[in-house]
Specification:
Keywords: Transferase. This protein is an alpha/beta fold. The protein contains six helices and twelve strands. Helices cover about 25% and strands about 15% of the residues. A hairpin with a 2-residue loop joins strand 1 and strand 2.
């Protein structure tokens, strides 16, 4: 995670960003710290990378790397305003002992568009990550990739429209939640075939960034406004854990955007 010490909405690279509206770095830091502390209270280890002046979106660490079995595929941003973030995260991995690191040749916004299910890597495209990056991810990470096409610009990254509730194990398949209307017709059919028991989100869930959630297989950290989705998750045996990310949402981010999950 990366503290949003330099958080600001200075440009618009997604439909949620409006530079004419005020944004508070102080309030963003306060909300971010509560999110970080929530993970720690649930027993998770949180590593931090130092924020860099001039990179107001560096808080959205999920876009800076994909880690599966300790192998790291870095990122390459589409927006020039974020391009410098990639190398800061690459150096962090090097300094923390990771040796199997590949920086992509294709536009690849990491866990923003990649979701590991324990069996396959779900890979989004349509607005940010290039389709060719999906094949590159398969080659680098050595896992099968399933491509999904996003069609609604409000849900410009896969992690705004889908998240993994529980990774697959030897005894059970993966379980996911997603917002069908964010995807092309073909991608919806793929998701229905692969995950027939998925939790389906509605428009209110999606608009509150409810799909930009983080699950450890039991606890699901999600925005406080996503009450309908929380009720459905509870009915499936999950424990919703609410956080306030209203300030960070002004830049188009939520709990998952702030969280790069490291699978060693």
């Amino acid at each position: 995670m990366c503290e949003p010490r330099h958080f600001a909405v200075e440009y618009a690279i997604n439909p949620w960003m409006d530079p004419t509206k005020p944004a508070s770095a102080e309030r963003a830091v306060e909300q971010w710290k509560k999110l970080r502390d929530t993970y720690r209270s649930l027993g998770h280890t949180v590593e931090e990378i130092a924020p860099v002046p001039g990179l107001p979106d560096m808080v959205f660490a999920a876009n800076s790397g994909t880690v599966v079995d300790g192998r790291v595929l870095g990122s390459r941003f589409r927006a020039p305003q974020r391009a410098a973030e990639a190398d800061h995260f690459r150096r962090w991995f090097v300094e923390h002992g990771y040796r199997d690191i590949v920086m992509p040749a294709q536009i690849n916004e990491a866990e923003g568009d990649f979701a590991w299910t324990g069996q396959v890597l779900l890979a989004g495209t349509g607005f940010r990550t290039d389709p060719a990056a999906h094949a590159e991810a398969q080659e680098v990470l050595g896992v099968p990739v399933v491509s999904l096409r996003l069609t609604d610009p409000r849900y410009y990254h896969l992690d705004t429209a889908l998240f993994v509730l529980a990774e697959a194990t030897e005894s059970r398949p993966a379980h996911i939640a997603y917002y069908p209307e964010a995807f092309s017709a073909g991608s919806r059919r793929v998701l229905a075939r692969l995950f027939p028991d998925a939790v389906l989100a509605d428009t209110a869930d999606a608009e509150s960034f409810g799909l930009n959630a983080v699950s450890d297989g039991r606890n699901v950290v999600l925005p406080v406004e996503a009450t309908g989705l929380a009720d459905r998750l509870a009915a499936h045996g999950y424990e919703p854990v609410f956080v306030d990310i209203s300030e960070l949402r002004k830049a188009g981010g939520g709990p998952k955007c702030c969280t790069l999950e490291i699978r060693k």
